[in-house]
Amino acid sequence: MAKVKDEITLDDLYKIDIRVGTIESVEDIVDSDKLVELLVDFGDFKRSILAGIKEEREDPQEIQGKQALFVVNLAPKKMFGRLSHGMLFDIGYEDGIIPVLAQPEKEVPNGVRAG
To answer: Can you give the pLDDT at residue 98?
Structure first.
């Protein structure tokens, strides 16, 4: 098991905006071995978010239509000529297991905040 990261304050934690969104589409980024582009509905807005899930899943399309947790206040990052406006939260990647989506236990409105 990984070592617990350095302590942070509640103020640090409150800076991270984590929201539930529904993955509307999953588009392959042909030039990348890892990345797909997700179009995610957050209720009041939609975002294009790049996620490195191609090597982790036989069929990345299987997450289309599912709700998951996303960080929505990261600065945009350009990869393979596309801008990513957030980050998919998943469970397990950093610990060397096949990752799974971090999801609400039942459907909730898109855009609901975690925390």
So the answer is: 82
Q: What is the pLDDT of residues 3-23, one digit of tens each?
A: 899 999 999 999 999 999 999
Spans of all domains in the chain: 10-101
Q: For residues 85-100, give the mean pLDDT.
A: 87
Q: Are strands 36-41 and 46-51 parallel, antiparallel or unpaired?
A: antiparallel
The pair of three-digit structure tokens given for residue 76, joined into one six-digit string: 């945009």
Instruction: Write down the architecture of domain 10-101 according to CATH.
Output: Beta Barrel (2.40)
pTM of the model: 0.92
Strands 67-71 and 87-88: antiparallel
Q: Tell whether the model's pLDDT for residue 24 goes beyond 80.
A: yes
Q: What stretches of 1-115 show up as alpha helix (H) in DSSP?
A: 10-14
What amino acid is encoded at 81 in this protein?
Answer: G
Token representation of residue 39: 């179009």
- What distances in angstroms separate CA 54 from CA 1, 38, 93, one per listed residue? 25, 12, 13
